[in-house]
Design a protein that fits this description.
The complex is a heterodimer of chains A (127) and B (751). Chain A has 127 residues and is an all-alpha fold. Chain A contains six helices and no strands. Chain A has a single domain, classed as Up-down Bundle (Four Helix Bundle (Hemerythrin (Met), subunit A)). Chain A is 76% helix and 0% strand. In chain A, helix 3 packs antiparallel against helix 4, helix 4 packs antiparallel against helix 5 and helix 5 packs antiparallel against helix 6. The N and C termini of chain A lie close together (11 Å). Chain B is built from 28 helices and 26 strands. In chain B, strands 18-19-21-22-23-24-25-26 form an eight-stranded mixed β-barrel, surrounded by five helices. The N and C termini of chain B lie far apart (132 Å). The chains are: A mainly alpha (127), B alpha/beta (751).
């Protein structure tokens, strides 16, 4: 939260896929529209909101709400290059659709842990 | 980039408006940016509810919906917007997850146009949107063009159909009719109509032949084009044009037909009207010459082939020209219409327009040719396509004569018209229509010359007379313009003073080397109406001669011109005489008119006005052939006439039969009491002159004094006979000392 822009982007590199970020840069090569910044800001807001929602839905046993959360998170995380997170989301979404609830708690906590790491990485990229 | 150029162009010209709906801000942002980059105008919406709110007063070109959204998801949103008016056909692209087959199905069920798997491949998404937009535009154009076509077909009362024949397994054939096609056949759009049901619309009389035609066409897989009369379910009778081409499968077998049905009733009505105008007389509604000739030709063909007889009856009205001249053309037309009605009732008249081949089949087909038609003017023809012998034709002729004898009411006035009917029978009286028509004409003329109001069947003996007469008539037409007509003059004398007191002009026709006597052409002229121009010429010529004589020997009496009664019925008679007098500078009284007693009495009422007008301008009128026409003496007292001419038959018998002198005495008495001059005609002998003079008539005319002679001869006659008082009758006349009416000529003149 207090991360200042660092000259070394070592940490995000392992969490966020470099190629994906590069594609974002290509949307706005000169940076005139601050595309990367706006996308990352939107993602940061979304992730901040959705991670607690996933916990909440799980605790309430609302699998439908949980499926929505992971579905949304799946595509937006893929967009910013959080591929591991996107994969966790896709996995849970699939299992929920097939109603395979076993191991859901562990998978969800893994997702949340990854989510926190992504959040930290994103924040490190934001001004 | 395979779509780069056209895509960029299209987008630059009309940037498409896209509504992008996604609950995920990141995706929304990214997709929006990517599409904007590619020339779309993006409106973002974060959910279904919000999107529907936007659509309440705005219509994008395309809508992109995320399938999975909290609240109103993509499917529900799509369903809702499809229900909104105006959004039935807007392209909707549903964004679904990978491997999400269920969503794809649901997307289509919800009314989405297409689906797209969510990914960050923006170019693919942009290409898909462009494709959908194009498809949508094509669809709109197609719908517009279909609507235009439907409208055009409606206007042309045309629709299309597609018929598949029954399969070999006996599975029933199928008929598809466009909405317009259904309308043409009197059904509503959406009705299912079978071939059988359509055949039931065909008018019963035609059904069998239509069915036969259809079977033949289908059997040979030939092109179908025919007009079919139908009675629609609401009872309207229409004519439907059906035109179709066969369709073949890959083996070359006919599998059905595609084509059009068109309501051509109006066109057919117009065509029928044209055909009717071309074949029927517009005044009477009867077949005209063209149609008649066609029918006659067919009748002759049939009669020839089947070995029976047929008959042409040429019907010519006897007094039509007089009625037309005196009552006017409108009355003439009225008369012709009535006559047409009556004639039509005399045969089994067939109204059908006939052209091309005789449509009906069978050996009795020619009977439908039977008709009465109008050849022109007052000439009609009754065509009897089959008779067993000439008595059949005679019976029809008798019927025609009978119906014509009833008076016809024309312009509120009763007219009597009779007809002369000439009959020619095939094959006896000719083998061609032209021969038969000519011979019926000959027969008709023979009736005319024998007093009219009768019929005659052609015989070769008639031919000579008829042809001569025809030639005479056409020659007479040209006689006036060729100056072949001349007037000869027979002097009238007063035997008491032995002076000429006037001259009667008598018409002669110098036809080549022969001088045709009036008896040979005046009746013909009367019959053909030529008498009118002949009389007008005579009036002019008499005025001219009066002028010449006035110059050469101070002639100051009158030249008498014979006029038929119909001339007196003409309103321009007085004017003509006036013009002639003016033109030649003579007094009106120098031309005197003669009308026969018979002619006068027959048309008395219509002649009287002219007589008064003539009297007003001092033109005197004599009654010719007096004593033969049973005049009512009561009429004589009121008529403005000046002279009675005793008929030559009474003069001839003077001194032979006592009755004749009794009649002459009576005529002279009547003339005296009415203060009319009286003159004896046809005086050939001194004895007749003597008796006539003794009875009180000193004015005479006849061979005794002079035959009718050319004008120059008359001068000679005056100089050589009258002036030297050399003729036998002069000495005789001087010895008679009877009184009489005062001589007409003023005394003292040298002739």
């Amino acid at each position: 939260m207090t991360l200042a822009p660092q000259p070394q982007p070592a940490a995000p590199a392992s969490v966020l896929d470099e190629a994906s970020l590069q594609r974002l840069h290509e949307l706005d090569p000169q940076g005139a529209n601050r595309v990367v910044e706006r996308v990352l800001q939107a993602f940061e807001a979304s992730l901040t909101r959705l991670l607690p929602q996933s916990q909440q839905a799980f605790q309430q046993g609302d699998h439908e709400a949980l499926r929505h959360v992971v579905h949304t998170l799946k595509s937006s995380s893929a967009s910013v290059g959080a591929l591991q997170l996107s994969q966790y989301c896709g996995d849970i979404e699939n299992r929920l659709r097939l109603q395979q609830a076993d191991g859901l708690a562990q998978r969800l906590s893994a997702l949340n842990a990854e989510g926190e790491r992504v959040l930290a990485a994103v924040r490190s990229l934001l001004p | 980039m395979t779509v780069a150029l056209p895509l960029a162009d299209e987008l630059a010209a009309h940037p498409p408006e896209v509504l992008l709906v996604d609950d995920d801000e990141v995706n929304l942002l990214l997709t929006a940016m990517a599409l904007r980059e590619r020339g779309f105008r993006i409106t973002e919406s974060s959910g279904g509810e919000h999107a529907l709110k936007l659509l309440a007063d705005w219509a994008p070109d395309i809508i992109v919906l995320d399938a999975m959204m909290p609240g109103l998801d993509g499917f529900a949103t799509c369903r809702r917007l499809r229900a909104m008016p105006g959004f039935e056909n807007v392209p909707v692209l549903m964004l679904t997850g990978l491997d999400d087959d269920a969503s794809i199905t649901r997307a289509y069920q919800a009314g989405a146009t297409d689906f797209f798997v969510k990914a960050n491949q923006w170019s693919l998404l942009a290409g898909r949107l462009q494709y959908l937009l194009r498809a949508s535009r094509t669809r709109i154009e197609l719908e517009r063009s279909q609507a235009k076509l439907a409208r055009a077909q409606d206007l042309a009362r045309m629709g299309s159909f597609d018929w598949r024949r029954a399969g070999p397994a006996g599975s029933g054939g199928s008929l598809m009719l466009s909405a317009q096609g259904l309308r043409v056949l009197g059904h509503s759009a959406g009705d299912h109509v079978s071939v059988r049901a359509i055949l039931r619309l065909v008018q019963r009389a035609e059904r069998r032949s239509v069915l036969r035609l259809l079977q033949g066409v289908v059997l040979h897989s030939s092109v179908l084009a025919t007009d079919v009369p139908v009675t629609l379910r609401d009872g309207r009778q229409r004519i439907i044009h059906v035109e179709a081409e066969p369709e073949f499968n890959e083996h070359g077998h006919g599998v059905g037909y595609t084509g059009i049905v068109q309501d051509v009733t109006d066109r057919r009505v117009a065509e029928d009207r044209i055909r009717h105008l071309a074949n029927f007389d517009s005044l009477t509604g009867l077949p005209n010459r063209r149609q008649l000739v066609w029918r006659m030709e067919r009748a002759v063909e049939h009669a020839h082939r089947l070995g029976h007889a047929c008959a042409f009856l040429l019907i010519d009205l006897d007094r039509f020209k007089i009625i037309n001249d005196t009552l006017g053309h409108a009355a003439g037309d009225e008369l012709l219409m009535e006559v047409a009605q009556r004639l039509r009732a005399c045969v089994r008249h067939s109204e059908q327009v006939m052209e091309g081949a005789l449509e009906a089949v069978g050996s009795r087909a020619h009977r439908s040719l039977e008709a009465v038609g109008r050849l022109g003017g007052d000439e009609f023809i009754a065509l009897l396509p089959e008779i067993s012998d000439e008595r059949d034709a005679q019976r029809v002729a008798d019927r025609i004569l009978e119906v014509m004898r009833d008076p016809v009411l024309v312009g509120g006035q009763e007219c009597f018209v009779t007809a002369s009917v000439g009959i020619a029978i095939f094959p006896r009286d000719g083998s061609s229509v032209a021969d038969l028509m000519r011979n019926s004409d000959v027969a008709m003329y023979s009736v005319k010359s024998q007093g009219k109001d009768a019929s005659a069947i052609y015989s070769p003996q008639l031919a000579g007379q008829g042809r001569e007469k025809l030639e005479l008539e056409s020659a007479l037409h040209k006689a006036i313009e060729r100056n072949e007509l001349v007037l000869h003059y027979q002097p009238m004398v007063d035997v008491r003073s032995a002076r000429m007191v006037g001259a009667e002009a008598l018409m002669r026709w110098q036809r080549g080397a022969t001088l045709v006597p009036p008896g040979d052409f005046i009746p013909l002229a009367e019959e053909s109406g030529l008498i009118v121009p002949l009389s007008e010429w005579a009036l002019r010529e008499a005025a001219r001669q009066a002028r010449i004589w006035k110059n050469s020997f101070d002639f100051d009496d009158a030249i008498s011109v014979n006029l038929p009664s119909r001339m007196f019925e003409r309103s321009d008679l007085v004017d003509q005489i006036h013009q002639n007098a003016l033109a030649y500078g003579i007094a009106h009284r120098m031309v005197q008119l003669e009308i026969t007693e018979t002619g006068l009495m027959k048309e008395l009422q219509s002649v009287i006005p002219s007589l008064h007008q003539l009297k007003d301008i001092n033109v005197e009128v004599a009654i010719d052939d007096f004593g033969t026409g049973y005049s009512s003496l009561a009429y004589l007292t009121t008529l403005p006439i000046s002279e009675l001419k005793i008929d030559r038959s009474f003069v001839r018998d003077l001194g032979v039969t006592p009755q004749s002198s009794g009649i002459v005495t009576a005529i002279i008495a009547v003339a005296r009491s009415l203060n009319l001059r009286v003159i004896g005609e046809g005086v050939e002998s001194l004895r007749q002159m003597e008796v006539l003079h003794r009875l009180g008539c000193s004015l005479m005319q006849g061979f005794l004094f002079s035959r009718p002679i050319p004008p120059d001869d008359l001068e000679l006659w005056l100089q050589q006979t009258v002036l030297p008082r050399r003729a036998p009758w002069i000495g005789q006349a001087n010895e008679l000392e009877f009184g009489g009416p005062p001589p007409r000529a003023a005394g003292g003149r040298p002739y």
